[in-house]
Design brief:
This protein has about 290 residues and is mostly helical. The chain has 14 helices and no strands. Helix 3 runs parallel beside helix 6. It is elongated, with a radius of gyration of 25 Å. Bound molecules: zinc ion (ZN) (2 copies). One zinc ion binds next to loops.
């Protein structure tokens, strides 16, 4: 649902759909932070990370890729979103990537949990990529008809580890060499596609991290009077339903409570994805949580 109003000030007259005549443009540093596409860098930009935040990011990585992942890992997401690590290590089909998170979170050791979440997110990206672009071997690609009959020769040279010598010795129009070059080119092209899918997923994971961590250069003092019963009830409902389409309405409710904090209003009104662990919701519900 596109917002016809500026996400920052809420004015519609000043908003042309992309920029606002009323609000100062975001700083270059802010823009760069919004454009980070490496998850490690994105999380690293924030100081004072908490276990709860890192678990929420891991959960977000599952949620974003849920259609690619088996049902059993969805339960893990739900626990992580509640900040729970009560799973028994080794009991899950994803133990290899889930266990390091469980162990680090139970020890409350943030640097180790950070590493575990980064590697967890990478594995989820690979799963997303592998569904439509599974890892392929050089010999799985097809050859044009005139080169197809040299396939066995290519296999033979490769299996004897002689391809380097073949490439060095034979001329460019040698059919074995051409067949090999063709296969290599196909593989390179295919791997580029895989890389693009992986990079797209990583950019989405960065957006999840930004929803949970907030822009680190602006400290927000949260005024308890913004926690009216309406605001708290809405935040609870959004968290529980995992449907965040009413975030702009939450901004209105916050404004009714005299909240004019631009970071908060913009976060709620901008067209960005929200996940359980969203920093605005977390700040509203902060008193509810242990
Ligand atoms: Zn504005
Ligand atoms: Zn959010």
């Amino acid at each position: 649902m596109p917002s016809p109003r500026c996400p920052r000030c809420g004015f519609s007259f000043a908003w042309n759909g992309r920029k606002c005549d009323h609000c100062p443009p975001p700083s270059r540093a802010r823009q760069l932070w919004e454009e980070i596409d490496r998850l490690e860098e994105q999380i690293h930009a924030s100081k004072d990370l908490t276990v709860r935040q890192l678990l929420a990011i891991a959960a977000g990585c599952i949620r974003h890729a849920r259609e690619f992942l088996p049902e059993s890992i969805q339960e893990v997401a739900e626990l992580f979103e509640r900040g729970s690590v009560s799973l028994q290590a080794g009991r899950y089909p994803f133990a290899q990537s889930v266990d390091p998170i469980l162990l680090a979170a139970r020890r409350n050791y943030v640097p180790e949990l950070f590493r575990a979440v980064i590697s967890f997110a990478r594995i989820r990206r690979e799963e997303v990529t592998n569904r439509d672009h599974p890892i392929r071997e050089l010999m799985s690609f097809s050859l044009p008809p005139d080169l197809e009959r040299h396939r066995r020769a290519v296999v033979r040279e490769l299996s004897h580890g002689r391809m380097g010598a073949v490439l060095a010795r034979r001329s460019n129009d040698d059919p074995i060499r051409r067949a090999y070059d063709h296969l290599e080119q196909e593989l390179t092209e295919y791997n580029k596609q895989r890389w693009r899918v992986m990079a797209t997923e990583e950019a989405a994971q960065c957006a999840i991290a930004r929803d949970i961590l907030s822009y680190p250069e602006i400290a927000i003092t949260f005024d308890p009077k913004w926690r009216t019963s309406t605001v708290v009830a809405m935040a609870r409902e959004l968290f529980a339903s995992r449907d965040f389409s009413a975030m702009p309405i939450l901004a209105d409710a916050m404004q009714d409570a005299d909240c004019e904090e631009p970071e908060i209003l913009e976060h709620c009104r901008a067209e960005k994805p929200h996940y359980p662990g969203c920093w605005v919701i977390e700040r509203i519900l902060a008193t509810d949580q242990p």
